[in-house]
Amino acid sequence: MKVSKAQAAENREGIVDAAARLYREKGLDGVGVAEITRDAGLTHGGLYRHFESKDALAREACLRAFEWTITPLDGLESSETDGAPATRLRALVHGYLSAAHRDHPGEGCPAAALAADAARAGPEMSEVFALGVERNIQRFMSVLQADDAARRTQTIVTLSSMVGALVLARATAAGNPALSEEILATLRVQLAP
Asked: Which residues contact 179 (CB under 8 A, 6 or more apart)?
């Protein structure tokens, strides 16, 4: 049975969304085509009607994952009460370095979930990942109303510290939950008391 163009587009979006989430949960090599398409409610044979290869899907899914934003605080940048840069920074850091974000990688930051995989996946994935990281740097600077070189440097230091802390907190959560929480708490205090 032939699928309408609208349904085909919806199926493609479902595949990309499922892949973006599953790759963040399990890594680029930790999930197969069958699992992605099953999660999207389709059969794995249909995937190749939408993508030339699994790598092409992975690149598009990575781009989609970077639509997740480090700045989910809609309206905060324009709020007069909560709009101070220090208040915005504190809210962002504390939200990012939370147990909820640590425990749900499929719904969170692709940089913390996929950086090591992206580094090993070759230049095309590296390019996609670099675009996403730059987008997050720009978003973060925008919310902090920063645009000069010194603020960009500070943004990169802060973001890198946050991503590193989240990676370590995730890696230690099952083996030593107290250490995992200590890592998150320490960085919250150090970056945005």
From this structure: 172
